Structure formats: C-alpha cells, structure tokens
Design the sequence.
C-alpha cells in the first residue's frame, strides 16, 4: 500500500463494511426467530440491540468515510464511478434504514409508518411503496435491499481495488506528502 | 394511581432554529462524528513514521 494511507482516516470505509457484516449476521438471526422473539426474550433483546447499534456505527462511519473522501476529492483520476457508487450506497442505505425502522413492530414503527406515508404519498410513490404494508417493508428490508447493498458494495470495493486509493493533493512546491505527515 | 393513558413516545428536547430541528441525540452524534474525524486526522498512525 502507498505510504500516504498511513492514517486512521483511511479506516472509515472498512469500519462501514464491518458494521454491514454485523448487520447481516444479527439481521439473519432476528429474521429466523421473528418479532415476538426480539421483543420478548432476553436473548432476542440482545440481538435486537446488536442490530440497532450495528446500524448506528454503519451510518456513523459511512458519514465519516464520506467526509474523508470528499476532502480528498477522491473522484479524481478516473474514480468517478467509485464516488457515484458510494453515493448510491448511501441513498439505498437510507431506504434500508427506513424499512428497518418500519420492521421493528412496535409503537415507534407504527408512528413512523403513519407519519411517513404522507411524505411518500406526496411524491407519488405511495402506490408502489406503502409504508403501512408491513410485509412489503419487511421483505424489502431483509431481502431486496440487503442484496442491492451487497452488489453495490462488491462493485465499490472492486473499483477501489482496481483504481487504488486516490493520491494526495500536491503541495504548493509540487511535492506530495502523506496524511500522517500533515500534523 | 394514575389510570390515564400515557403516550408511548416522548420526543424529548430538541434545538430548533428556523427550519432546523435537531434532537439532543442528533447533536451528540454530530459532535461525536466531528470529534472522531479530527482525532483520526491528528493521531499518528502506528508505524507511519519509520518508513
């Protein structure tokens, strides 16, 4: 790896992927046992909490990854599809997060469904995307959206491997410096 | 005994400025993200100096 990646800033991407792996693991266990399990039993509560905190760290590190890549202008050098793919991942993740909130099967999810349906209806998407339809939201959340995310992450990682990490900006004197030498 | 039905969701405090509406949890998370970002930039990376 090039010397300029010697900085903690470059770990935000892999931390996002790690959080996603935890989401898949805990989500699979939650889907096997179902809502009455994750709301009632102690072990169910535990995995419900793991899933919740995994999504917190998923978005936390995704945003930090976005900030880092923005300030590096990481779309340079033919990496535009890596950048666009990252945005696509962010947007699909938001929909995955919304359908996750709606899949909780508690007062929160009912409240969000009832309030959110008006927003979706105002866009004209209500006929296809019904926030009050638990089966549709749950199916999207545990199958369709994770599959889309897996494909997009695979493409994103492939592009990062193909093009490599973006080079740092040049200094005023024309030389490069590593991120770890900036302080 | 209080027999009145209690609303299950308590919104809690939020900072409101014009169109902006940030809950305390939102503010904490944003500050934490800024903090972690700065720390990640400033903290020396292990093995980064001897190469």
Sequence:
């Amino acid at each position: 790896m090039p010397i300029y990646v010697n900085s903690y800033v470059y770990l935000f991407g892999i931390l996002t992927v790690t959080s996603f792996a935890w989401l898949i693991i805990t989500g699979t266990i939650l889907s096997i046992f179902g809502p009455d399990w994750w709301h009632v039993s102690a072990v169910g509560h535990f995995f419900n909490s793991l899933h919740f905190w995994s999504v917190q760290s998923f978005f936390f590190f995704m945003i930090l990854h976005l900030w880092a890549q923005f300030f590096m202008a990481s779309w340079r050098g033919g990496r535009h599809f890596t950048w666009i793919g990252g945005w696509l991942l962010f947007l699909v993740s938001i929909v995955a997060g919304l359908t996750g909130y709606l899949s909780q099967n508690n007062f929160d999810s009912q409240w969000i469904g009832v309030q959110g349906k008006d927003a979706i209806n105002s866009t004209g998407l209500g006929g296809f995307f019904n926030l009050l339809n638990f089966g549709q939201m749950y199916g999207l959340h545990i199958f369709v959206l994770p599959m889309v995310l897996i494909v997009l992450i695979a493409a994103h990682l492939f592009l990062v491997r193909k093009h490599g990490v973006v080079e740092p900006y040049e200094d005023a004197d024309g030389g490069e410096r590593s991120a770890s030498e900036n302080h | 005994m209080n027999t009145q039905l209690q609303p299950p969701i308590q919104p809690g405090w939020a900072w409101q400025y014009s169109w902006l509406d940030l809950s305390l949890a939102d503010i904490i998370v944003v500050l934490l993200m800024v903090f972690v970002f700065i720390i990640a930039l400033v903290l020396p990376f292990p093995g980064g100096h001897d190469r």
Summary: The CA atoms of residues 32 and 38 of chain B lie 10 Å apart.
